[in-house]
Amino acid sequence: MLFFAQPLYLYLLLLVPLFPLAYGIGRILRRRRLREFGDQAMVEALMPDLSRSKGWVRVVLFSLAMAFFFIGLSRPRTGARLVEHASRGAEIIIALDVSNSMLAQDYSPNRLERAKLAISRISDRLQDDRIGLVLFAGSSFVQLPVTTDYVSAKMFLSSIDTDSVPVQGTAIGEAIRLCIRSFSAQSEKSRVIIVISDGENHEDDPVEMAATAAQMGIKVYTIGVGSAEGQPIPMNGDLLRDSNGEIVVSRLDEETLRNIASAGGGAYVHAGNEEFGLNTIINDIRALEAEDFGSVMFEEYDEQYMYFFGLALLFFVLEMLVGERRPRRKLFE
Length: 333
Hints:
- The protein is α/β, with parallel strands linked by helices.
- The protein has helices at 18-37, 40-45, 53-73, 111-125, 150-158, 172-182, 206-215, 254-263, 278-285, 305-322; strands at 3-4, 76-78, 82-89, 91-97, 130-136, 140-147, 191-197, 218-224, 231-232, 234-235, 238-239, 249-250, 265-270, 291-298, 302-303.
């Protein structure tokens, strides 16, 4: 089966029919100019070697060459098979708050989008570590099981919004509990939970759950997203209001996040606009004892673009060899 690594380039194929169309329009305009110059039969007699058909042959060859070139740009690939992959590192599960309060615009464009960007960037720094993703609001679920497939991790990130979890609220303790259950059976030592939230917990006792994780040898880090002054929450073109009609202002609860990190044996970091805080935590994780992991992954696809580029080159050469003049001698006399 054929796959395309850069499928957007396939849209360039829409340009291919324009080449013969432009050539045909050019011929019509040229013929009109020749009529203005003089009698058409006399003008054609002055150019006996000019071939009418070879122009069309050349434009067809050129169009085919460009079509194969555009397909080559889209990087067609075949293959893909499951292979055993050995790695050595830590298991990191990120618990990301997707409650409505993460829409506050302390950061550009908002808290949630800034957190997603930071997670995407930190996945570029990981090598053999395994990463997982848990989303939470009033409830929580595993968005991405622990994996070394960072490409898939970025794909999952792009689809996350505040509607990803249907139950609103903030239950950090429930999220930590789910993270604990989501580590692989291979992991025993280097296990880390990173909670990214504004800390406004309304549902349970996250400090107690973080202490439980620490007793199991799991470090719990927290990253505070927001400001002490707080920001209103944009919702459906307006600002979120409470039952009394007052505008809801979401403030960062640093005390709760500090207590969670302290109970979990980790550290608390306040996210900044430039340095979000994940880099600092990843540096701490590097000091942990690495573990050996085995996983099954898709092997790299076999690239096929060079064959399409080769066909494009062949048609370009043929197009140049055709020329525009009639042959001086006939093949059979």
